[in-house]
Request: fold
Amino acid sequence: MTVYLDHAATTPLRREALEAMLPLLTDDFGNPSSVHSFGRRARAALDDARERLAAGISAQPREIVFTGGGTESINLALKGAAWAGKARGNRLVTSAVEHHAVLHALRHLEKFGFELVVVPVDRYGRLDPEQLDVAINDRTILVSLMMANNEVGTIQPLAEVIRRVRAHKGVVIHLDAVQAAPYMAIDTGDLDVDLLSLAAHKFEGPKGIGALFVRHGTIMLPQLHGGTQERYRRAGTENVAGAVGMTVAYELARAEQQVTAPRLAALRDRLRDAVLAVPNVELTGHPRKRLPGHLSVIARDAEGESVVQTLDLAGVAASTGSACTTGSTEPSHVLTALGYPDEEARGSLRLTLGRTITDDEIDQAARIVPQAIIRTREAAIALAVDPLGEQVGA
Ligand code: PLP
Reply:
């Protein structure tokens, strides 16, 4: 059996969520906007999901907008808040290690007269609150930050960072909580942000559904126009089964966090020790302030893509970094921002654990991963040697 170690890319749908979704995909298939009993049943299920998801993040039901996933939540938040704030200013601020959903949405806005300032991070991927402070001027209308990074697992020093941003009046704060949500409490009572993005498939919910928290009073222009759904903020027939599956998965993830997080951290540390025992392998991201199931390394002289392919054949599913940039020849923008030269960034490997992982699977991975790195290096050396055994160019 292949050990799945790519939970940062996506997770399996958990059974409780699937079971809660099934009636909405079969007998109770109605459109929540329909007046008849089918519609009313769908509406009741959607209202219930909204109330429960809101309660799970200490929000009010009307502050939840169901979307088509993390990317859509982020695009709605950033474009919606930027356009709504255009009369007040045009500066948008973010960090260099954001997901492409954030960076590319903001780069798109630059074409329309917005000014983007990208704040650097340290060697671990952490923002310096002072540098962020300097980037914000009186034309700044929006700051977008992430709770935890998808490629290197680093958790941002949020309380301090948010406090600094809040000192500037009139700045809307968006938080990308997509990777953090399975393992960290999301409490909009404590987190002083205006917009917050979630994606269900990162915490064993279904794909194709996400949510955007929009704090009451935050002005955000819709980006999808059509019907009146989601209080005019996101037109289109709602994904009722998805909303229900997302809510059930979130409630369970939140209830289990206290147990899941330390268990995964301990398993991750076991795997980390085995992988770091290989010569010339270095941990990327913060050594302690990182997501519990997240391990990311750079193995020098072992191309990440080749290691992932070797691992796949050997029974471990891993990735080089963000699933969205896999296959691209560009080095990861995150590792570049952390200061790694292209040559080193190419040796990146990400192993991410999830709730369902077992001790035996980690033991299996702890045997296979080091061998795969060593074998990839040997294969690279063999390729550089001619049939007579002489080094090319020697
Ligand atoms: N933000 C972060 C931090 C992510 O890790 C991801 C997905 O990997 C996204 C946003 C985008 O989410 P989705 O691919 O579900 O739209």
